[in-house]
Amino acid sequence: MLGYILKRLLLMIPTLLGVLLFTFVIVQFVPGGPVEQYLAESRAGPGGAETGGFSYRGGEGVDARRLEEIKALYGFDKPAHERFLQMLGQFARFDLGRSFMHNKDVWQLIKEKLPVSISLGLWTFFISYLIAVPLGVAKAVRAGSRFDFVTTLLVLVGYAVPGFVLGVILLVVFGGQLEWFPLRGLTSPGWEEMGWGQRVADYLWHIALPVTAMVAGSFAVTTLLTKNAVLEEIRKQYVLTAYAKGLDQRQVLWGHVFRNALIPIVTGFPAAFIGAFFAGSLLIETLFTLDGLGLLGYESIIRRDYPVVLGTLHLFTLIGLLTKLVSDLCYVWVDPRVKFDG
């Protein structure tokens, strides 16, 4: 097992380098980089619009010495391969660089935005599994019944409706017309002066709508996966043997069937846990004005804030690769018969 883990860790290095190299090359061909944006803003008038109408003119009308100073400011005075090697050296020391747009370390930006993503991710993950697993078991036990048909229809409808569409509906109905929930933000003004009980209530009041929008489509796959896994186990011979020994349905279901059906569920647990933080939250964060990692990544791409784009990509790719390794190791933890060394 130790040899397998070491082999997987070594394979992560070329994968991570490939992702970074591919993204870095694409970045070099994208127009409107930080130098160009700086020049455009320097030409803009007091109202924020460029005098004479905006049109991209590169370094036209800018002193060559001044242009070189601006390039040196952003680190673009060096060849691309030198900048790439320098970036790899920084990432090897876990130095993600400094943001052009925010003038802060990328690590600091991530730590500032992380609480919002943690709030959305944790609630989405736990609520999804708390609904999906019991519902999947109930559907398997009552397979073919009216309950199974109705719940399958509801689950598929929830899966088919995009989260941001459901979020718009929730905002319009419960935030706008009924005014039961706030329209934006994670907390109310003056949250720091509230008591602990008021803080918790205010936080849950704000997080209710965005979490509902994210949960609606996230538990469908887990529900159907749980149902199919339990159904497959119920049809096996050992279940009939357990009934023949005098065990009731509850003992057979939760003591034998559910334990074996957990294999496909538990092995996907780490990936689902990490994915709840970093996947699919951009539109929800934008819609509910939540300043999290998704919104940070989107704004960084629009503003060509390359240190943030490449730094967060490096971090998320590394987390994804490690999560995949943990998912594979869960096979051995759940089913000791699995031997990766063989």
Automatic annotation (TrEMBL):
<feature type="transmembrane region" description="Helical">
    <location>
        <begin position="9"/>
        <end position="30"/>
    </location>
</feature>
<feature type="transmembrane region" description="Helical">
    <location>
        <begin position="261"/>
        <end position="288"/>
    </location>
</feature>
<keyword id="KW-0472">Membrane</keyword>
<dbReference type="GO" id="GO:0042884">
    <property type="term" value="P:microcin transport"/>
</dbReference>
<dbReference type="InterPro" id="IPR035906">
    <property type="entry name" value="MetI-like_sf"/>
</dbReference>
<keyword id="KW-0812">Transmembrane</keyword>
<dbReference type="InterPro" id="IPR000515">
    <property type="entry name" value="MetI-like"/>
</dbReference>
<feature type="transmembrane region" description="Helical">
    <location>
        <begin position="203"/>
        <end position="226"/>
    </location>
</feature>
<keyword id="KW-1133">Transmembrane helix</keyword>
<dbReference type="GO" id="GO:0005886">
    <property type="term" value="C:plasma membrane"/>
</dbReference>
<keyword id="KW-0813">Transport</keyword>
<feature type="transmembrane region" description="Helical">
    <location>
        <begin position="116"/>
        <end position="137"/>
    </location>
</feature>
<feature type="transmembrane region" description="Helical">
    <location>
        <begin position="149"/>
        <end position="174"/>
    </location>
</feature>
<comment type="similarity">
    <text>Belongs to the binding-protein-dependent transport system permease family.</text>
</comment>
<keyword id="KW-1003">Cell membrane</keyword>
<dbReference type="Pfam" id="PF00528">
    <property type="entry name" value="BPD_transp_1"/>
</dbReference>
<dbReference type="GO" id="GO:0055085">
    <property type="term" value="P:transmembrane transport"/>
</dbReference>
<feature type="transmembrane region" description="Helical">
    <location>
        <begin position="308"/>
        <end position="334"/>
    </location>
</feature>
<feature type="domain" description="ABC transmembrane type-1">
    <location>
        <begin position="114"/>
        <end position="327"/>
    </location>
</feature>
<protein>
    <submittedName>
        <fullName>ABC transporter permease subunit</fullName>
    </submittedName>
</protein>
